[in-house]
Amino acid sequence: MLLTSDKPKFYGRRQCRRIRKAKTSLLDNFLPKMEINKNTVFKKDKLFGTAVSKIYLEIGFGNGEHIAEQALRNPDIGFIGAEVFKNGVANLLTLITGIKEGSDITEDIKLLPDRVDNIRIFNDDVRLLFARIPDNFIDKLFVLFPDPWPKKRHASRRFINPDNLKEIARILKPGGILRVATDHKIYKGWTLRQLHECPDFRWTASCGNDWKHEPVDWVQTKYQRKALAEGRRPVFLDFEKKE
Ligand SMILES: C[S@@+](CC[C@H](N)C(=O)[O-])C[C@H]1O[C@@H](n2cnc3c(N)ncnc32)[C@H](O)[C@@H]1O
Question: What is the pTM of this model?
Answer without folding.
Answer: 0.95
